[in-house]
Amino acid sequence: MTEPFRCAIYTRKSTEEGLEQDFNSLDAQREACSAYITSLRHEGWAELPARYDDGDFSGGSMDRPVLECLLADIEAGGIDEVVVYKVDRLTRSLADFARIVAIFDAAEVSFVSVSEAFNTTTSMGRLTLNVLLSFAQFEREVTAERIRDKIAASKKKGMWMGGVPPLGYRAEARKLLINPKETDLVRQIFQRYLDLGSVRLLQAELADQGYKTPVRTARRTGRQSGGCLLSKGKLYWVLSNPVLIGCVRHRDQVYDGQHEPILDRETWERAQAMLAANRRCHAHRSKAQAPSPLAGKLFDPAGLRMRPVHAKKRGKRYRYYTSPGLIDSSREAGASGWRIPGAQIEAALAAAIRHHLSNPATRSTLIAGINQPTQVGTLLTAIGKLVGVLHDPASPEGQHLLRRITRRVALTEDRLSATVDLAKALGDTLLPGSDVELTLEISEPIRLDRRGSTL
Fold first, then answer.
1. Contact 176, 246 (CB under 8 A)
2. Which of 185, 254, 336, 361 is least surrounded by CB atoms within 10 angstroms?
3. What are phi and psi of 308, to 5 degrees?
């Protein structure tokens, strides 16, 4: 007896509207997919009992919990076929679709859309699929443009357009209302900043007095946030937020809001002048002689974005990448995280990129879509120059190259994983329309000097 062809049904809805109904959009999609599988039962198709339903999640991102579960089950070998009602239920992004298909292909899993007839084993079928996905992505981008235009128009009228309410306010019926429990803290923050002239001293004083951020509960997930000490970043955000004087900011424009102010304009303007003076002073003092190319791109084992910091000893400047917990607090106060010398992690990343680019298999993959020998030679020469620059990642050229091509670096206890965009460095050497894959996925064992508490 042959093994059944295990079919998983994936459904998705972009908003939560209607999900509370007994028979909603997810149920309708599942019913159509289930009927399709039943019609092919004579060929051995069998529906898996597990439900893969993503409600209130956009198709423009792969950051969906149930989709991640589906992909994990596929990689574990528990699924043979993925059935969707329409392709755009799986994704509305061509880039994300390429990543999903790569996972499908690696596990020898195929997928079918019950409302769109195409066969991905033929060139015409693949063309049809790409056309459908192009229209799905176009529809998503047009919708995003309409939403951005609506937000811009609403903020010009001074309306509050959602998000986390600023300190001193609460949101009710899409309006900002003053929260009397927090207004005294807001006024104290501004007054003490004007007295002390330093956010660092203000943060230390508020921490000693036990002030913490208000606890917020997310409406959709019920997850709570806040209840922690006021960090320097949070204080900078409060001190520069025009909402507190009854205004609404949209990008670089500020409009009169429809809510009541907490602060008077004189106090606000004095604080802005002091912030601007401190920024100028700091810029002249640091001179930015040694930038950190991985700033904003490096993540610790807890998934937190590590921040660049520096210290001076005997006139020499030392750079580090540090977990946010060790910046906002200290190890003595129970904070945990990593603190890694900047030069060390940058050298490790450069070595990993050099190792992969020097691998014949990697080079074969990069030139696989090129048919002209002269272009192959040009590309290999460019790769050689890139490897040469990465032999000295501490040089200005090496730092500039790492900043350009690195998209993300994630650390674990013993491994470095990175996504590198080679198109930033090699794209000019390729003909338009080349099929060469220019994104490099790296995963290498690593030993680092972690000068901080282990997570």
1. no
2. 361
3. -80, 135
| Contact status, residue 205 vs residue 196, Cβ threshold 8 Å | yes
- 3-state class of 107 per DSSP? coil
Decide which of 63 and 125 is more confident.
63
333: which DSSP letter?
Answer: T
Select the more confidently predicted residue: 374 or 157. 157
- Contact between residue 309 and residue 320 where contact means Cβ atoms under 8 Å apart: yes
Euclidean distance between CA atoms 395 and 381, whole angstroms: 21
According to the model, what pLDDT value does residue 187 have?
92
Q: What is the structure's pLDDT at 298?
A: 92
- Is residue 330 over pLDDT 70? no
| Burial per residue of 40-76, b for 16 or more beta-carbon CB atoms within 10 angstroms, e otherwise | eeeeebbbbeeebbbbebbbbebebebbeebbebbee
How far is the C-alpha of 280 from the C-alpha of 287, rounded, in Å?
Answer: 11
d(CA 116, CA 286): 59
Give just the sign of the alpha carbon dihedral 205, 207, 210, 213. Answer: positive
For tokens 């930015």, name the residue: 288
- Give the separation between CA 161 and CA 199, rounded to whole angstroms: 29
Q: Give dist(CA 411, CA 391) in Å, integer.
A: 22
Q: What is the three-class DSSP state of 200?
A: helix
Q: Are 169 and 177 in contact (CB under 8 A)?
A: yes
The answer to whether the beta carbons of residues 126 and 134 sit under 8 Å apart is: no
Beta pairing, strands 253-256 & 247-250: antiparallel
Amino acid at 118: F
The dihedral built from the CA positions of residue 432, 99, 80 and 37, taken in this order, carries a sign that is negative
DSSP category for residue 368: T
- Residue 70 pLDDT grade (very low, low, confident, very high; cuts 50, 70, 90): very high
**Amino acid 219: pLDDT:** 65
CA pair distance 76, 98, nearest whole angstrom: 20
Ranges of beta strands (E only) in 3-136 are 5-13, 45-47, 52-55, 81-84, 110-113
pLDDT given for residue 326 in this prediction: 78
How far does Cα 205 stand from its chain's mean position?
Answer: 33
Instruction: Express as a percent the part of the chain with pLDDT over 70.
Output: 86
